[in-house]
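[job 4471] stage=fold_predict status=RUNNING
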Amino acid sequence: MDWDDLRVFLAVARAGSLRNAAARLKVNHATVSRAIQRIEERLETRLFDRSPGGLALSAPGDLLLPHAERMEQQVYDLSRKVASVDSRPSGTVRVSLPPFMAQGFIAPIVARFARAFPDIEVQLEITNTIADLSRQEADVSIRAAHEVTDNVIGRRLVRYLICAYVSPAYLEDLGTLAVGDGTGAAWIGWGGPDDLAWVANGPFPNAGIRHAFPEVIPQLEGAAAGLGIAWLPCFIGDLDARLVRAPGVQPQPDRSIWLLLHDDLRKTARVRAFVDFVSADIVRMMKPFIA
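[job 4471] inference complete, writing structure tokens
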């Protein structure tokens, strides 16, 4: 059975429609439709039932799914193992990292790495979705987290500090912002269920929450625009000239920065070069901002 057709079958099963599967695979709708038709003709059965919500697996489709998933995993395993015999640091390294590290953080690191290894190209995937390294969604993942439980290898590089930041104009308009009070001030929240808890336990418990920005960079921009106070990583807030630390607030430890890769790629020259260089560079540049 053609693996390319089975790959399309998996995409349709996961996406729930031909159109969504085509978008994920970056092919046209007709290509997906023909692939499903070929498998159904070969197996002489129907793999999907149409429903108001889209496509659902039929009983034969349910039977085929785990076998196709095992084949997919074998393809990924084979690809990683073949890539691991690479001995010369050249080619492309695909790196996944969250959006807040993409602004002002990663570009200088990549620039220094590119000068040291001109034959390696870095391809960034900016997303909050955790890359599945076993499925080759990335070669390396740079992640901010308290802990990592994936089946991967890597390094816990640094634990960074966070602090409360405001714009000087916002402080001037408030007149006074006292630790332990905060009356009249406003926090920029992120819309989580624990918003009230962290405000009550924070330096300005009497400040309310106005606005909900779920990403670090919009929170930074909101604070810079005078919308309120925002908790930000110090390696971002301290380097923005539009912001100052809220008076009297001490930085506190938060998440760690991890650099992760799949075990099969640890001896691949281009990946090893990236991991070693970038790990040392992050530790060096983060020294003023770590717990």
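[job 4471] summary: The two ends are 55 Å apart (CA to CA).
[job 4471] exit 0
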